[in-house]
Specification:
Oligomer: heterodimer
CATH class of the largest domain in chain A: Alpha Beta
Strand order of the largest sheet of chain B: 1-7-6-5-4-2-3
Number of domains of chain A: 3
CATH topology of the largest domain in chain A: Aspartate Aminotransferase, domain 2
Strand content of chain A: 5-15%
Order of helices and strands of chain B: HHHHEHEHEHEHEHEEEEHEHEEHHHHH
Distance between the termini of chain B: 19 Å
CATH superfamily of the largest domain in chain A: Type I PLP-dependent aspartate aminotransferase-like (Major domain)
Largest sheet of chain A: 7 strands, mixed
Distance between the termini of chain A: 59 Å
Strand order of the largest sheet of chain A: 2-8-7-6-5-3-4
Helix content of chain B: 25-40%
Radius of gyration of chain A: 25 Å
Shape of chain B: globular
Shape of chain A: globular
CATH class of one domain in chain B: Alpha Beta
Number of strands of chain A: 15
Amino acid sequence: MVRWISDEVGEEAALLEALGLASADELFRDVPKKARLGRLGVGAPRSEAEVVAEVDKLLERNRPLGRFASFLGGRISARYSPAAVDAIVSRSEFYTAYTPYQPEASQGMLRALFEFQSLWVELSGMDVANASLYDGASAAGEALLFARRLHEGRRFLVPASLPWEERSVLANYASGPGLVVEEIPFDDRTGRLDLEFVRSAVRQGDVFGVLADVPNGFGGLDEQLFELKPTIGDVPLVVVADPLALSVLEPPGSYGADVVVGEGQGFGVAPSFGGPLLGLFACRREHMRLAPGRIVGATVDAYGRPAYTLTLQTREQHIRRSKATSNICTNESLLALAFVVYASVVGPKGLASLQASLAEKARTLASGLGAVEGLRAPRFEAPYLGEFAVELGRGTAAAFLDRLRRRRVLGGHPLADPRPGATHGPERLLVAPSESVGEREIARYVAAAKAWAASGGGR
Amino acid sequence: MSGYRQARWDEPPIWDLAHAHAPEPAPAIPGVPDRFRRHEGLRWPELSEPTVVRHYTRLSQMNFGIDSGIYPLGSCTMKYNPKVSELLARRPGAAQVHPYQPEATVQGSLEITWKLERLLAKVTGFPEVSLQPAAGAHGEYTSLLMVRAYYRDRGELERRTEVLLPDTAHGTNPASASMAGFVTREITSKDGCVDLAALKAALSERTACFMLTNPNTAGLFESEILEIAEAVHGAGAMLYYDGANLNAILGVTNPGRMGFDVAHLNLHKTFATPHGGGGPGAGVLGAGEALAPYLPVPRVAKSGRRFRLEYDRPRSIGKVKTAYGNFGLDLRAYAFILAHGEEGLRHIARRAVLNSNYLAARLGRRLPRPFRPLVKHEFVLSGTPLKAKGVRTLDLAKRLLDEGVHAPTVYFPTLVEEALMIETPETESKRELDEFAAAVERALDDSPEHLHAAPTSCAVGRIDEVRAAREPVLSWKDLRAGTRADSAKVETP
């Protein structure tokens, strides 16, 4: 029997005796017979050693990133995390705690979350950050609903280049209140947003928010970002930003963002096949009472000493119920802790030099791939940091990636929406050299791409 | 008194650990126009690793977790988090896997996902399970979007605009329903359970869904569940199961058997994945025949011996999160189920309910229990008798912190005045239950002065939450702007 259920000698008998029961089964007499179950069919218990063996056997069927030169990116990255980060998040006082409903007993997590909020405020250039949301995509969804609280209208504009997963999540968040997500076209040469489209959509009216991402879905930095707020006036501007990029880029608060969201997994959290992730959210001070999610505030205790607590709770579901700004209860506190520990161990200079080094790797790779026949790399003429889009002149992205994989290169991920019936544009990939690749791995990628080209590129 | 003392470090915020220095401008990146460059640089301290580690270690010592002591938060199912799960989730084969790797290189992750879905299908009694939602409330919300899509396809969405729920519902239920575009109506409970007559009167052709947790937040099993299901279905509406309280009924009954159409489970409750001080969670969904086609994509499918991500689900609502589920937690839950097996899962429910009834009987001698005595995983007490000596439930909760235990959930469910909601899962021994009961009894017998002054053994004393909300200080930026919490006069207790 598992050791985790308390089973100390004689205790169950003592509990039953105190209740005057012969068996614990009597405690279920209020469950109707017709609703009772037979066997579940989940198998026999296993010892801890057997569980480890079984799970390890299954995990052997994975080929983790360490076996490849990885160029996988998008919103999720596999960066090296200093061992100190895991040492802190492995402290059970942190990881086995619940939401800090009793702040006096939970000052440690509350203070870490206050530092996390402070860091996202600094990175984003905004005033107020919450204590995290589920992931970058759902944070964008919350930003959509938040923007609707700031401004009337039914239409929310997003770049057509936004990753399809985020567009799908946004469409879901929009669907409840009957809102519509519309795509802003981009310039085919540069990938830049069509500002004229935005201007005329806003002029037509009914637009309650405009979203832009930095870097955008093609890895590009779009100068139109700086023109968006002047173009849309009091319509809220939502910016989806990468936290590492913000270590070197102007914060969105400086060019008029009303809300800045992003994916924070890359700071100290392993990719773990896509979860858990970390949603970042920040807004301006005048809108803080409309923000979603938990927020930690500083105050004092009965003796006037600094103390921290969850605050502005009248926005939240456990108090406001159907009128809450969001249904958020669980968030991603432990990942928020990892985020702030990572940034503090690496430091601002370390973050900027990591971003600079990733950008250099991307440039080296782009110049190598740019010379390969049948590839357009980078696809768009725009500045970029650590990732860029590649377009195949022939064959499929899947076939190209498959070919690279045989040379132990994970060459990026296809940008197309894989759902049948989705509009399928040109075959494009997003390519992002990971922190662990060097000149040799980049050369291996280029050589594999050349071999693909020489073989006719899947023709 | 227990002699408990939490660490009380005078630890400054992390930015005060470094010498004050102006942020340096970010380096120029070749190819990136100067206009994009962060000219002021990032304002954050440059610190040595030992300084950072010591800082957060000290903070951890001012935090109470399930490994520190009993954590009887009602409806939160704070049980021991097996250490082996932490070990497994950190294996490179689990952690160092990118969701966009080709399927052939992630067969292990896909197989674990598939197997966990099959196991949870058995536990919930539903044909299909999706691990995509990131938390319980996210699962509720996703389910309601599915309900919405279902009625849209049937041409009934325009008239089915209401979601009904009992007044004992978790706050996330009405909040999720509103976000999904429904109007909510609360049904007043009778003796802590759904009033079937009131429900029947409220059900109509406008009802899209009735949301229920069973056992409910009063800790009571809704014995009329089959009649409730019949009434809801009779009105052409869907029945939603909030799985926050599933721990009590593992292997005894399940949402499918009770007649529910869709359910969410919290892996961080019933299946012991650590809650991380507020998250991560995982909000698995189970769906019956009607709603299964609407589950988020991708689904994990098995073809022969290979596993793949299936996107060909034309009626799916699409995505609610990037990538798939919270795999790191799914893996822990999978290990938890393997270890327990059939016998263990059934034992969980028996022991959790036994613990709860034992503690309820003992504490029920001191404080009123508003409902019938037989409870499931949790029970509710009312702190109203304390009012006679000028003490509130809040004071009792704070006083309990001085005993080296966590306080129960307080002031919920709202239908009980001065409520205390207590849940002590199967991992708590009789000795822990007795010590907790003794702590409550000592607190009840303590003087009003002590109760009002509590806590005195935590890192800080009673916190001024009103001030936090009235004059919000939410970041370092606010502190730099000279808000008052920074410069508060410090008095020694």
